[in-house]
Amino acid sequence: MSHGTVRVRYQDPTVLRITLSRPERGNTIGSALIADLHEALDTAEESGSCRLVVLDAPGGVFCNGMDMAEAAGATGPGAAPGADAADPHGAAFFGLLRRLTEVPRLTLACVDGRVSGGGVGLAAACDLVHTTERGVFSLPEALWGLLPCSVLPFLVRRTGHRTAATMTLTTLPLTAREAADRGLADEISPDAEPLIRRLLSRLAKIDARMIGEAKGYLSALHPVTAETERRALDAFARLASARGVHEGMARFAAEGRYPWER
Q1: How many domains does the chain have?
Q2: Is 98 within the bounds of a domain?
Q3: Per-residue pLDDT reduced to its tens digit, 96-122
């Protein structure tokens, strides 16, 4: 990939595996990762044999959410009014989540460890989520004066309003078992490979175009509209401009740990 944030390989002609590959940065979401994930999805769409896209990460951290250093620079003092080119909770990130819901391939997020903020969005936007017992899902944004504005439309579609609201308002993490009970994860097991084999045993019997047809129809039943996107982007921009938020993001980026870990 052009920015080196992911590794992409065909597990076999039907499975494209995308591995987030910056564990030292917590696989945080910034402009480079967004671009690389789009490029990987282009690869999947260009393949006539690909049926399944697997998104995973090694090392006990799936994704720690937004790249705080990048976001703090985009929203901090001196940023141009309305600037969101480097803001991973701007239009680019929202567009990536929307694409995951629409790409005409089955998408599977494999979580083994911590997934926070925007990482929950990546998982929620996928068609299926596998987790090991080590999975821990959280939305900590309120702790530094933000909300997971771009994540919530996709999380609500997956879990319903109650779980999305509880995760947002309390910032308390969900264990893997709690995530499965609330619909955020579809299966808990030590290894995702048996699930992948079961999926392929069915997907091999389905005309590839039917995956896109089904996802398009299902998305239309619970649409994420242009108005939803505008509201998410406006709300995040307003919150990010509040006094103290930029400093909180910059402090988190420097310390590299969550407030509850201090």
Answers
A1: 1
A2: yes
A3: 999 999 999 999 999 999 999 999 999
